[in-house]
Amino acid sequence: MRVQTISTLYLLVLVLSIIPTELIKPQQTGNLRGFITDSTNGEALVFCNVFLKEINAGASTNERGFYLIKSIPSGKEYEITVSYVGYKTKTLNVFIQPSVVTQLDVKLTPLRVELQTIEKVGEKVVRENTTDISLERISVKEIEILPKGVETDIFRTLQYIPGVSTTGDVTAKFYVRGGSGDQNLILLNGVEIYNPFHSLGLFSVIDPDMINSIEFYKGGFTSEYSGRVSSVMDVISKDGNKNRIGFKGGLSFLTAKGLLEGPIPNGSFMITGRMSYNNDVLKNFFNEETIPIDFYDLSFKLNYSSEDIFENAKFAAFGFLSNDDVDYEDPLREQFKWNNNLFGFEWLQIYDVPLFSRLGISLSSFEGEVIPNLSSLKPRYNEVKDATITFDMNVVYENRDEIGLGLKLKTVDAKFRQTNYVGVQSNLEKFAGNLSLYGKYKFLQWKNFGLDAGTRYNITGLSSQGGGFFEPRISMTYRFLPSVAFQAAWGIYQQEMLTVSDESEIISIFDPWIITPDYLNPARSIHYIAGFDFDLNRDIHFSVEGYYKIIHYIPIVNDKKFTTSDPDLLSGTGESYGSEFSLNYSLDPLNVTTSYALSWAYKEVDDWLYYPKYDARHAANIIIEFNIGNGWIASSIWNFTSGYPFTEMIGFYDKYFLTNIYASGQGSGEFNPYTYLGDKNIGRLPAYHRLDLSLLKRLNLYSANIELGVSAINVYDRANIFYFDRDTGDIVNMLPFLVTGTLKVEL
User: Fold this and answer.
1) Partner of 27 for a Cys bridge, out of 99, 232, 321, 677, CB 3.0 to 4.6 A?
2) Whether residues 252 and 378 fall in one domain
3) Per-residue exposure over 209-224, b if at least 16 CB sit within 10 Å of its own CB, e if not
4) Taking Cα atoms as reference points, which of 385, 206, 366, 194 lies closest to residue 298?
5) pLDDT in tens, 686-731
């Protein structure tokens, strides 16, 4: 009742805000809007700064490269400065007319081989009252510079962000502020990817070459996002070169890949492909075992925009396919297969009000299977088919306040079949639909204060107990000094899709998705976040955040299911809290980022409290990048994590298994070795730490841009323990010292 009362108040605020006073009084101001793009290929430049010096106001481009500056005093000419890291700063003049929206599109020229100092013009002004607490904007160029194990990978880069943890070198799966892996929402062009991993979880299926922007919310995300209770990663792909046909090829020790892009009438296209060709390097990840991993991913995007047909409209169609197959020649070994397929269409429209709208239609599917062959594993099969329609619109008023409204219709058909370790079968199938609405109001008219208040309402739910539920959320920023800001966020989140994975597995290879069964409530979390943001000077930025998160109704696999009448899942509770510190120094040619996180995470089921396998008390990172000059860039990463929990082996004994209960005497049974385990996750592994180095060379050769990279992983060959083999008791370590290389050619 309390939550519904708060939500009702939010909706009342939204309705009252639709009729602002600015609409009934004469306008003596004008508006400026436009797109910022790369002059060489027409790609949108996201999070670019646009600054008006005369009135000390500005804006940042969104994920589409669009900016809007409202309420500019009219009848004057202004000097506009546009700046973006890695591009030449551009200054031009524009005249603002009263009650008119002035369109100013700007093309920035990239700095090539010799990177130069980029003046951060207006950056502080642009983010004075932004309410984006716990939001990380990740640069693809930054990802490419950092040391890489085998592949450049966006998920492995996340692991260096405070509040994000993993369980070792062997996996790119990540956990955010004490939440499990399936509580992270991964979006590609607004469409959900259910299994975003290649190679048994080693790498992301999203090739960095196709990415234009990445926004990663560690918590406190706003009302337009739904379906997960921990975090959101929102990835927007490139549109393709609008000026000329271009090709980019790449080669690593594991994969070969290519990208083709170019213009079409009134638009552009992009096609990417990547495939594995060599598994030898993966022995370092799997304790010298040869695993026959075969995978590929393909993507495409078509864009169309014509002022003759739809003014200020943009249409895009895109697709993504990935496939993995682990197939041993030995019939005594199991086979793993899984694939993702994603197709979408979007219509972006800009009106003169100014009003913005987006219509999205998408299909997303996942299929995975474990084929035991003659091994001891049990068969498992999973299929998810997702069809979604979304409509979002955003209105910006003269006082800079904004209203966002949206609708989402999703249908999901999920099937899961398995046989557990005692031979009991489970068959979970469900087709359901979710209809939800959201509304939010952004109060931005005061320069030193910003507020984002809104709610989602689930009219119907995928699970029987998911409908009729409000998800109110609020975030705010108060800059009480020019260089110091206080930020806070609170919100309620619901999740109706989950993965069924055994928490006792050291490496979870197969994570099937299901809809929350009718006998359970869907998972629901509450986030409490607060922190401070400090600009110590022009080049040094420091931030600190504290959080508390509680998750109710976490579905947990029932490892005591002995009959078909026993439930497949139990309901548990999760709790996590901690503090995160980050310090960044950036002054060409040196960039240094350090971070530290102190955190606790717990789970409770059947009155049993334990640590999840990804709980780490301390985590620290030091990242250094140095622009040597003449196209040379060096970087290093040192990572430290205190020990992860594990279930200790108390002892071994021979367990007697009856082979024929009606026989007696010799041969009626057999003894098999059995491991006796202690309390769940009560032990702790030794601390993990590792130093990685990288050297990158960029050069122009005739008409080609060439990039050569070499990385040294685990430079001082630290023997980080991954797990203890439960059959032998032997120690299995993570990555040893390893040297890898990459080559990229762009034409």
Assistant:
1) 99
2) yes
3) bbbbbbbbbbbbbbbb
4) 206
5) 999 999 999 999 888 888 889 899 999 999 999 998 888 777 778 8
CA angle 520, 522, 526 (to 5 degrees): 130
**Who's near 485: CB < 8 A, 6+ residues apart?**
477, 478, 479, 532, 533
Look up residue 428 and give its two tokens: 């979970």
Q: The tokens of 11 are what? A: 């909706």
Q: How are beta strands 313-327 and 335-350 bridged, if at all?
A: antiparallel
Arithmetic mean of pLDDT, 3-19:
47
User: 643 is written with which tokens?
Assistant: 């020990």
Residues in the chain, total: 747
Q: Supply the pLDDT for residue 125.
A: 44
Q: From CA 139, how far away is CA 210, in angstroms rounded?
A: 13
User: Residues 216, 190: one domain?
Assistant: yes
Q: Show which of 94, 126, 158 is a domain's final residue.
A: 126
Residue position matching structure tokens 């009135």? 55
> Dihedral (C-alpha) 94, 95, 96, 98: value to the nearest 10 degrees?
-160
**Residue that the structure tokens 């986030």 belong to:** 527
Range of the structural domain that residue 289 is part of: 234-647+682-746
- Helix/strand number for the chain, H first, E second: 4, 48
Tokens standing for 720? 């980080």
From CA 81, how far away is CA 77, in angstroms rounded?
13
- Per residue in 434-479, pLDDT (tens digit) is 999 999 999 988 888 999 999 999 999 999 888 899 999 999 999 9
Tokens found for residue 739: 């040297």
- Residue with structure tokens 């009106």? 351
User: Which is more confident, 312 or 264?
Assistant: 264
- Where are the strands (E) in 173-282, listed by range? 175-176, 184-188, 191-192, 197-198, 203-204, 211-217, 231-237, 246-252, 255-264, 267-276
- Token pair for residue 733? 């370590």
Does residue 653 lie in a domain region?
Answer: no
Instruction: Convert the pLDDT of each residue in 553-587 to its tens digit.
Output: 998 877 776 766 777 788 999 999 999 999 999 88
CA dist 690 and 738 (Å) reads: 12
Q: Say how many domains are in the chain.
A: 3
121 lies in the same domain as 249: no
Structure tokens belonging to residue 140: 């693809």
- Are 186 and 247 within one domain? no
Contacts of 196 by beta carbon, 8 Å cutoff, 6+ apart = 155, 186, 204, 205, 206, 340
**Residues 69 and 146 occupy one common structural domain:** no
